[in-house]
UniProtKB/TrEMBL annotation, chain A:
Its EC number is 1.5.3.1. One of its GO terms (molecular function) is sarcosine oxidase activity. Keywords: Oxidoreductase. This is Sarcosine oxidase subunit delta. InterPro entries: SoxD (IPR006279), SoxD_sf (IPR038561). It comes from the Bacteria. The keyword Oxidoreductase applies. GO terms for biological process: tetrahydrofolate metabolic process. Pfam families: SoxD.
UniProtKB/TrEMBL annotation, chain B:
Belongs to the GcvT family. SUPFAM superfamilies: Aminomethyltransferase beta-barrel domain (SSF101790), FAD/NAD(P)-binding domain (SSF51905), Folate-binding domain (SSF103025). Coiled coil: none annotated. This is Sarcosine oxidase subunit alpha. It comes from Amaricoccus macauensis. PANTHER family: AMINOMETHYLTRANSFERASE (PTHR43757), AMINOMETHYLTRANSFERASE, MITOCHONDRIAL (PTHR43757:SF2).
From TrEMBL, chain C:
Keywords: Oxidoreductase. GO terms for molecular function: sarcosine oxidase activity. The keyword Oxidoreductase applies. Its EC number is 1.5.3.1. This is Sarcosine oxidase subunit gamma. Pfam families: SoxG. The keyword Metal-binding does not apply. It comes from Amaricoccus macauensis.
Amino acid sequence: MLLIHCPYCEQDLPELEFAYAGEAHIARPADPSKLTDEEWRDFLFIRTNPRGVHFERWRHINGCARFFNAARETVSDRFLLTYKAGEPRPDVAKLTGVAQ
Amino acid sequence: MTSNRLPNRGRVDHGKPVRFTFDGKALQGLAGDTLASALLANGIHLMGRSFKYHRPRGVVSAGSDEPNALMGTRRGAGQFEPNTRATIQELRDGLEATSQNRWPGLGFDVGAVNDHLGSLFSAGFYYKTFMWPRAFWDRVYEPVIRGAAGLGVSPTESDADSYASRFAHTDVLIIGAGPAGLAAALAAGRSGAAVMLVDETAEPGGSLLSEPDVVIDGKPAWDWLAATLAELAALPNVTILTRTTAIGYYHQNMIGLAQRLTDHLDTVPAGAPRERMWKVRANQVVLTQGALEKPLVFDGNDRPGVMLAGAAQTYLNRYGVKVGDRPVIVTSHDSAWYTAFDLAEAGAKPVAIVDVRTDVAGALTDRAREHGIETLIGRTVTGTSGRLRVSSIRVNRVENGKATTPRDIACDTVLMCGGWTPCLHLFSHTKGSLAWDDELKAFLPGHRTEAVHIAGAGRGLWGIASVLADGAAAGTQAALDAGRDATEHAHTVEADRPGTGITVKELPTDRDPGKAKAFIDFQNDVTAKDIRLAVREGMRSIEHVKRYTTNGMATDQGKMSNINGLMIASDALGKAPPQVGLTTFRPPYTPTTFGTFAGYHKDATFELTRKTPIDPWAEAHGAAFEPVALWRRAWYFPKPGEDMHAAVRRECQATRASVGMFDASTLGKIEVAGPDAVTFMERMYTNPWAKLGVGRSRYGLLLGEDGFIRDDGVIGRLGPDLFHVTTTTGGAARVLNMMEDYLQTEWPDLQVWLTSTTEQWATVALQGPNARKLLEPFVEGLDITAEAFPHMAAAECTVAGFPARLFRVSFTGELGFEVNVPARHGLALWEKLWEAGQQYDVCAYGTETMHVLRAEKGYIVVGQDTDGTLTPADAGLTWAIGKKKPDFVGKRSLSRPDMVAPGRKQLVGLLTDDPTVVLQEGAQIVADPNQPKPMKMLGHVTSSYWSDAVGRSIAMAVITDGHAREGETLYIPMPHHILTAKVVKNTVFYDPENTRLSA
Amino acid sequence: MNAMSPLAAGVTITELAPTVRIALRLADISTAPGLALPVKVGERSAEGGRTVLCLGPDEWLIEAPEAGRDALFAALGAISVPHSAVEVSDREITLELEGPAVLTLLASGCPRDLARMPTGSGARTVFDSAQVVVTREAEDRFHLTIWRSFAPHVRAILDLATRELAAGL
């Protein structure tokens, strides 16, 4: 069971309070009708699934109820950092530097 | 029977006899004994039969690594446990223990024939033997193997005990209360840090309990131990848990601890759980788990009476039991020499110390001579004899690595020591790396991934002095790392027993090694030659060798066997051990009961069960219940003598004839409020909402972004900026989560807020032609006549004196209302309506009748008639899509090529040719019943009921291209016959003009 | 380590009478001057029998005695900007847990380190499989506010754990 830092509660809290919510930084297109079938398919189904740093969404569902973003190392299953929804994607190189 | 108990020795209570039975025979031990020590005290070494060859086996160890002495233990009804390790189970009054893997008895066992057929049962036996003929797989091999397989006997009664669990948070968790752990606890405890010190045995002390002669800080070991425990007990920040095994080490210093609370007690206090699972989050972890002694690998090393030297020392000093009178010690490590000395001083007559090393410290050989023990240095052991107990050992000289002149030495026990393996199982759970130490021939902790400190024998140190110093340093560092001020305290040690040793492969022999039964893994009956065979047959990785031979795959996870197996595999492969590798240790560290994992989730608290405010009425009126999501819902209300079918027919008839009452409280309810509520609803649901008037409601359909149906429900507009959304019972939490997701992350600019009100409201549905007549007298502040309050009207009012939200809505096709009142009034409202309804022969109906009534109207149930792959068009719900809306969740997906291509499964009605036949829900549908198997399946029946209203059976099904099959006859193959049915596109089977609900 | 004393004396569990409860959602707290909304998640204000617990960045749980209903609704009515104030008085049941072993009892199902929760604060978290709002009313007194249908399960586990504590092991 992981400890997850909620950027809204500003505390490290048990994973049981959280729910995973898929890959982060995939914005719903403002006007989906403008997308080709292929573009829409990619939006719906294509995910990066990296070996390494993964940007993903979590929800503090049994807490402050906020969705937020996290950078997690998928090999070690360690969070590098968490940040509020809407904030820009952090620099991977800097993150892995932090992790070391 | 001889008694091997030594008076006034050990930590057992010589004044407290404890009675127990073994295989039905009444025996006596002492308070403080384990089952194993009590049996040994009674002269019993033979404690079980091995798993594969059914060889007679004695106890090998004195700890949780025991592979042989596994027994069934029983306290009473529902309190039987197989595979209890006799070395861990403490003696208690009335304990019933039975040996395993034998028939008819432990002394004579028919299965032992396997032992004589041993050459047939070599490594990979199963893979090679049961290949053909194919027809034998299921009918012959599988039942025979299953019958013979398995360790112990599964309990046949449900578990009568209760179990517990607990979360805990601490600064420093120390695992293992031997000298290193105690020193660490002192250091960390004195700093003021919150400390948990856990040990898997009944009392702290570890190796000190087996080495009473060492002097620490000027005190004899046991006095030092008592003083240390007293100091720790006086520290309010220190908690000591005994009988507590750290079973798993998870991310970020989360440790699972299995605490055994009652198995050692003569009588169990009321309400006491048998075991408790602790889930501990520690800032720092200190692993002081010590080292595990390895056996030596030689022919006959598994004969009863052959055991680990360290275990013999523990039985002697901790339990006051002399395991034999004339032991021979066979060792590759100095530690076993002290076992010989302790035994000699306790009155046994060790016959000889056989050391496989060529060079042994003079101090040891001198002391052996003083005790009159023969020392045989640089020798090998090539066999043992004795039927149910070892009676002699065959020792050979070694010249140029080859065994030469043999000599038989009579003995009654063989005490072996093949060195010590640092216990790093938990460290391995963290994916910390292990580094091979070629001098110690052991893996030591390498790179750490957690805030963990390893101290003592667990990192290859030996001797009390070095282990204490290391533990104190680790405890100090852990406290510092946890943010405390800590200073290290030194300990002085006298009469220490430092030592060294080597690790070897199987001992050289002058006999045919192919016939030697030199065991590595006692529990799985794996021998040295099995490992070599595996390598000869092409296994290169230790992971393959492990699976081919099953070495290390028993419940002890190879605690004794891994390194011996590795040494032999690496020799056979001609590679250094680290190149061959070590198999992965996984939680749990030792076998753990299911009860410990279940914790409180047993019987009434097995699973969370939600009940509505009206549930007590349903229970009092004899309802049968069914689970729907986490809810238990009234399923039907049988009258005396009625089965489900009869009750549902009656409920359906009564509702359509007059009025029925239904508890709809479980429907999910979400308050959508804010100036952008309409915009939000427009974006979420397929339907148009902008023009829905206040006081009106509408069926809402929710898709996923992929275009598939996710949920539906009636949604009322109670104000310009306020919607009362209902969801399916099972979908409530999911829908709210999905809405919050879009709101928070896609449209944070919208001023709208969502609040779950599922449990704020209790909901009573009144359905049937007399529904209005029944309800009208209770309603204040609202005209509910057909004109003033038409179908799909919604309003806030007072009902029966309670504030209410009233919806005119129908899931039955009848005139209907749903009354929502604050939950605390739900039962009172129901009872008032029930009482008043008697004049109309009101009928309470359950979910089954609800399903029949809705199916008669062709209303779908999301999750029953849809399965996450149906679009609105597939389900015949295109009417629910706002055609002019530029966008809503899932809209773009509805025009994807696959969504409009032919061949989609579509929802249709299905009418059986024989109107009395009710199809089975889930039954598969085919176009041609005579095609060869496996048949091409077109789809399946989703809903199927007998309908009195229609006068025949009705069904819905999802079928490939179903909408184009109007009138087509399809087939439903059943086990013994084939049913036929015709497709109807229109699933409204009853009152297609909707005259009834508009009444 | 005060959460772990196995021999601590009992804990009494009492179901409290209903109060007026409002789930308030609001973007800007300066617009609700009459409600003393705390800013940080977990903080709670208490004034004249009314408490306001900040559950999330824009979410508050307000509790008031029935006698304070009108005053509360007046204060809510005075909020000058768009917001959502939903009465949820019947949605939840509140259990009061009091006694020296209360932290141990709560540790039977709550994964949070409640020893670190300051008196007068609270949080939404989980107990076993149920979502709960925990508030610390005093050193050894907590309130658990639980959705109505989840409350019996939570209560049943608390009762099992109480028996376990009484057994003293």
